[in-house]
Amino acid sequence: MNKQTLMKKYLNTSFGNIAYLETGSDNNPPVLFVHGIPTSSYLWRHVLELIQKDFHCYAPDLMGLGDTDVDPHSDNFHMDAQAEMLLEFMASLGYEHFSVVCHDQGGAAVQIIAARNPDRIDCLVITDSVCYDNWPVPKINKLQKLFKRIPTLTFVLTKIGFFEWRETKTRYSNFRQAVFDPNRMSNEAIREYLRPGRSSWKNFNRFKKFLLAGDSKYTMQDVPGLKKFNKPTMIIWAADDHELSPSWGKKLFDEIPGACRFELIPFCGHFWQEEKPEAFTFIIREFLADNCK
Q1: 60/21 Cα distance (integer angstroms)
Q2: CA-wise closest residue to 107 among 251, 260, 266
Q3: Are 160 and 154 in contact (CB under 8 A)?
Q4: Residues 6 or more apart whose Cβ sits within 8 Å of residue 134
């Protein structure tokens, strides 16, 4: 099930050439899937396979991650710019409003959209996302410090495969520590997530810009707007997420006026898309079917 069957497409925008996965019929409601760090649209491959019969699905690579081609010298890697890119991306595809499923740091960009452009969202699913002042999480914060102090050495270690070795062959793997069952995070998936940053200095710099732009000020500034968002919203969380505690999901549920459903999935960690895609997708599909226009 790890093999990616969908081929990436590209959409030219004012921000750059955005890579994305697309599946489903034009006649079905549009749903935007937004990933976080250090993943890409590849994160959603199992979910898209399970949900494509009911929805027209789009999963772009955020700027700085995956295969999206943007100028590494630009300043468009922070969450405000990512939110603007997502809006332009969907508008360019012909959608002035759509539903959204978000995860991890991609949730910050989506919360900005919900706070500032609520009419663009039909319904919202937030899952294991950064929010309020809970990010960057400790592991990402350590990575930020490493990239600031020794960027050239970090690139060399990336290029020669040191980080891939650590993530696939040792007990220090951050990816495997972020799931309840380490066997559910395959080497193939880890290599795909690491591939873009390892492929060239240009891609490495894009990843670095995304990484260093991570700051909770982008979610905190839009908390007042988020507290006014009244579109149908579901919060669904992995009960054993040690990166972002389910308590953050409960806080979102309590403070978003449109939040009408809160779900916890047991025995599952942060990267549930790798670990329990079927369990999550069953609930997400049900919610979207009831609330998509």
Answers
A1: 6
A2: 251
A3: no
A4: 216, 244, 248
pLDDT in tens, 194-232: 999 999 999 999 999 999 999 999 999 999 999 999 999
Q: pLDDT, tens digit, for every residue of 38-69?
A: 999 999 999 999 999 999 999 999 999 999 99
Is 0.90 topped by the overall pTM?
yes
Range 206-232 burial, b when 16+ CB lie within 10 A, else e: bbbbbbbbbebebbeebeebbeebebb
Q: Decide if 271 contacts 185 (C-beta within 8 A).
A: yes
Residue matched to tokens 């491959």: 45
Residue 4: is its pLDDT beyond 60? no
The topology (CATH level 3) of 9-291 is Rossmann fold (3.40.50)
Query: Tokens at residue 128, please?
Result: 């294991």
Strands 9-13 and 16-23: antiparallel
